[in-house]
Batch of 2 targets.
Target 1
Amino acid sequence: MICAALTALVPPLLAVGLGAGVSAAVHGALLFRLALAIHHRHGSFGPCRGVGFISLGVLAGGGTAASAAIGRLPQVAGAGLVLAVLCYLTGLLLLPGAAPTFLARLRQGLDALGLAACFLFTAWVAVIAPHGGTPGPLAFLVALATTAVLASSVIIAVRAVHFRSAARACATGVLVSVLGLGTLTLVLSGASSAGWLYLGGTALVYGPLVSYATARRYAAVAPVPEATDPERGFGGYPVLTVPIAMVLAAAMYHLRRYTRKIVEQQAHLRSLVAGASEVAMVLGPDLAVRWQSSAAARQLGLSDQDVVGRSFLVRVHPDDADAVRGRLEEVLAGSPAESGHPMLIEARMRDGFGHWRDTESSVSDLRAVPEVGALVVHVRDIGERRELERSLHRLASTDQLTGLANRKELLRTLAALGQSGSVLVIDLDGFTAVNDVRGHDAGDAVLVEAARRLRDAVDGADLPARLSGDEFAIASTGSPVHTYALASRVLTGLSEPYRLPSATVHLTACVGIAELAGTDSGGDALSRAALALRRARHGAPGRVEWYDEALEAGLLHRMTLEQDLPGVVARGELDLVYQPILDLVEGRPVGAEALLRWRHPVLGSLSAADFVPVAEDVGLINEIGEWVVHRACRQLSSWRRDGRDLWLAVHLARRQLAAPTVATTVGTALETHQVPAERLVLEVTEAALGNDTEHAVDQLTSLRTLGVRTALTRFGTGTTPLAHLRRLPVDLLKVDRTLFTEPAGRTTPATPILDVVVGLGRRLGVEVIAGGLEAEAHLDVVRAAGCRYGQGYL
């Protein structure tokens, strides 16, 4: 059957099972028949018992092998192995001449038990343990059964009184059968490879054959004499001497291996500790250092005599000592069994050279470990990491050009100040021209110098910062009086000349201030200060503005206008209303002034004073002005068709007058609507003339060339000298009501000033119009002064 399995005609397990089963059936039957023959020949039941139990063991082993191999059942193989071993051991002890008395059998059984334990221990130490394996239940059962049969075979072979050679041969057959069944069990359980299957099958086939061939010798012998001294021959030899020597040798071998392993582990640990960058220290309950690694001298310059036996806290910085002591006592107060991850402690420690190092220590509570029984501290030098963190923080919180704090650091500082203090936002007027004319290098030099002056102006508790471009800020911790004084120093410092290698630059500045009290965050306070700065920009240079709610409301109103102004002409939201200009002598209208209105969908009707300055700032005034001129000319043309012979005054804003296309726009409107040029009057205020009077004169002259008349309105509210009236090409002069109304508490007549203006106008050939008439008393004053035309709510 085994040969058939080798040639792949039959599956190996099936071949081994059938071969073992047939061999066991044949030889078991022969052994059982031999036992009966021995009984009949000698007339007693004693000598045949040993052969009979061996036959039972053969049958049990063969049946187990066949059923387990065919069904692939390792548990059946294990149970059958136990049954077969019990039968074999009983049969060996009952063989003729093995043990003549019950006490001899008991002694042999105890000797076999001790020898089996020695064999098992030796196998465990020498074979199983070195390979690091932990045998499973079936493997342990096979080892136990094999050592038991081996020990019994040795005892019987040594201590047999008679027929020692026959007993030795019979025990060999039994041992071969048990080895075969054990090998099959291991293969079925997966503990051994399938290559051992053929060896196990061969043992299962030939083991019973050896047992039967040996047992036949007992059939021809005479009965064993009862009075036999069991101590004769080898019976008195110290059988356990050899196994005990084996056990001692195995133990010594294992001890040597264990010692070598410990030495290797110690060397490995020593190399790891010596090459580690961390310093390891062992602390007792009193926090005294019991031991430190060799890395302490290399990493921190600490020798054993400086550290060992002294408190760990001696090396900790005084400012950090209390915190470190509290953390260590917290570890000591906890249960060692409950300790989880190591506790991290950051502190400054003094090294062997007297310098303070930034360190991070991990504390492990190993009091529950008998080999340690203390706290283990691993100290790491984190100085480079701390310096890197500080460098990253400086990069993240500092403006790279000026070295001042950036917006992020300013907001963090404002958040730390809470509700106390103020924030100042500073803007450099004229800095854009420096970049455009002299280049960005010169602009950067100006910013660096401005940053230096800010540092000199602030107190030690204040934080100067650069927000963006030429905009700076200061977080101040002082009172409002202190903050205003700081703003004055800043304006003085920033307004001084900036001396560059190529030129000297003159700049001015303005400041917006907001208190932190009542704000939700630093960003809110910064936004309020920016609103105050925005109003300061619309004033004179060097202006300081404080934030208030009215300012915010006004600026929000302006922002709404800036957002809604684009497209106002296309949406048809503009309109003109007309205020008549009367001949005060005849009492009839001779002209009118076109007043611009914006029908805002949310804010309602807005006058020109509300949104024209905003339109000038956002660059929409020319578009709106062109619409006004065309709309006024169309209305004037309509009046002429209806028989109303009136002239119409249209106001020109400052930027309109400065635009080079203003004359073209007016000429196109007159031609489009077929309006006589002399019926159109273009008004400008004194403020619209600006500082460049020559340019204003040229623009007015080009307009008069078209045939239109020009007027100077709100005369008396500006700074135009009377001598300029001779140079300005104007046809009408509209005086403001401040020239004919008395201030509160004055009773003197107002006519003298108006008389001068009217008289001067007549001499220059300029018609004078009294604007802002609101009461009968006003009318009496202007009539008395000789003013012929008037305009107003009256």
Target 2
Amino acid sequence: MNIVKSDQYETENQAAFPDASQGEVVVFPASFAQRRFWFLDRLMPGGWAFNLPAAYRIRGALDIPALEKTFSEIVCRHEILRTTFKEINGEPSQIISDPQPVRLPVIDLRVLEPAQREARVQSHIESEFGVAFNLSTGPLMTITLLKTGDDEHVLIKNMHHIITDLWSEEIFLAEWVSLYQSFSQNKPASLDPLPIQYADFSEWQRQSLQGEVVEREAAYWRKKLGGGIEPLSLPTDHVRGADTNLSGAVVKFSIQRQTADALRILSRREGTTLFVTLLAAFKILLYRYTGHTDMAVSTPITNRNRAELEKLIGFFLNTLVLRTDLGGGPGFLEVLARVRETTLGAFEHQNLPFEVVVEKLQPARDLTQHPFSQAMFIMLPEMKSVWKAGGTTVEAMEVGRNSMEQDIILSLYDKGDAIEGLFTYSVALFDRQTIEHMARHFQVLVESIAANPACPIDDLQIIDDAERAQLLVNWNDTAAPCSLTPVPGLIAAQCARTPAATAIEFAGRKMSYAELLDRSQRLAAHLQKLGARPGQLVGVCVGRSPEMIVSVLGILMTGAAYVPLDPQFPSARLGQMIADAAPLIIVTQRNTEAALPENSAQRVHIENELSLAPEFRAPEISPESIAYVLFTSGSTGRPKGVEVPHRALTNLLESMLKTPGLSSADTLLAVTTLSFDIAGLEIFLPLICGAKVLLASRENAQDPRALAAMIAKSNVSVMQATPATWRGMLAAGWEGSQKLKILCGGEAMTRDLASALLTRCSSLWNVYGPTETTIWSTV
């Protein structure tokens, strides 16, 4: 089916415009691609996100009338440049007006100093690029000329994407150069007439993509893209918002000739193209960043596969989504074969517009994300940047503004020797430094592929020697002096320094450091009498109260290790823990003793036994002695008791005094049950530096509103909790405290939670570590 001039649609819709019979306007259907921009403009009116701006520095004597004639002729040749859009019968249509002469606004900046002049140029560029085009009224192209010297100008051109694409820009420039060459020498235009116009293409497209043709093509894409594609979860610096900020920025890099040549040789040997090889590398990079094996990356195609379209300005661009399975631990050559097969299939079915694919497949829509993919790959030949037009030289300027429909776009330009690259990224999601790292990772990855293409993709290098040293050596060079004084000695020393200060507060009751030391030593003396000593295990089955802390500290003072026995645990679990640990003694209370199953351990009721305690004599406690035994949850089998030595606990506490930092002025709100190791940090960290432990009851620890009230009422400055607890507090309307240091651990912390918390605190610390590594191993 050839593309020919058509007046059928025009005739059908002439009634919509009474003056059309006079030749002022003609009407054609919008192409499928134009329809998408029309509807996006309706959803997000008044924005510049779909502008395609350009700026050019013109040097040499410029004939402005000849330049105006040049642009007038281009507008006359290409109906799309004088097209606007209106809705007819519920569908957008192209309204083509008669050509009018182009009159260039000229702004003379020569009176300014050079520095001021260049600043004004940039200001004008920003202003012009930010124009919000009205698709209904037009015009959809603006051109402004700045006079920056007697023989130097800057031309600023801006067009809405609905009437142009990158290929069209090359056509525009080629015609500009040719026509200006002729008109500046008073010669007639030398360009061949255009056989058709863009509106003829859109009418042909409407007629040709119907019925079985569409269904056959849609069946292919349904097979390839159906079933849902998980959004690409790149690690962003900022949370994806609902405001659809489409601003973009660029990071440049290059692939050196030696690597580029090796990749070209590899491509030829494997029977594919450099495009496919580098696309495979990009997909592997995204896989290494995200862990996604179902990898969808889109790529734009010119969609000018007919001779009649090659010299037309207009929006022909189509988007192909290339989906590849990277699962199974393949080598690069296997991935290359998979990407090659995917690419060949997609190009065989490229005629169906992306907009129709979306319409047919109906993916879940999110205005903040592109359907099917959030990353794009583009590979182009080297782009020309300087042209000769008559007696002038025209040089493309870098424009500082990009708009983003994708999260990230990798553009590669094959210069024949090196390969130049651009990572264009959403500034709403990423910081520049992050993308600079990504560009370096891509460089290292393709070097690794060139050196060893048979390598499994999980083993390909993406970091260079310097970054490897930083990750493995520099960042792990955390050795620091540690006193190795066991926790009882650290707390006793603090009690001597600040005896009158409040050590613990619970339900309105306060206990000073002096009272804490006295009661703990009394308990320790009694436990010693019963046989507690280093190497022994002593259970603790006490409710949340100051007595719980006295019990733990008293046990540690004997050199024995404490074993938490939560009275809320099922009896069977407590029985199993007691059977495995075989504690010599269990410290308990009258109201918690009933939770304990039958066992042979001696019982100490903390309420009654202390008055009979003999004088306490502090034993020598080795740093290697066990401080506590905590049982795992049993999620992987029978619960296991983890023994943690004093040296590990002391090392953790002393490091946490520095990062994130704690002092005697702090109040820490303790919310964690004693059966989790984090409770040890909540209790011991404040007590070794003179801070206050504000102990939450079990009921308050599970009530987000109660926790929020405690933070506000008691001037809490430090709190550790799980992400679930913090989410609960946010859901309850907690507004935060600007003096609060937040520690978040126990589960993975998501980026959206981190962002929400950061606005409500003085600092946020993401902490992690299994019980076996002593509470936290990373901060």
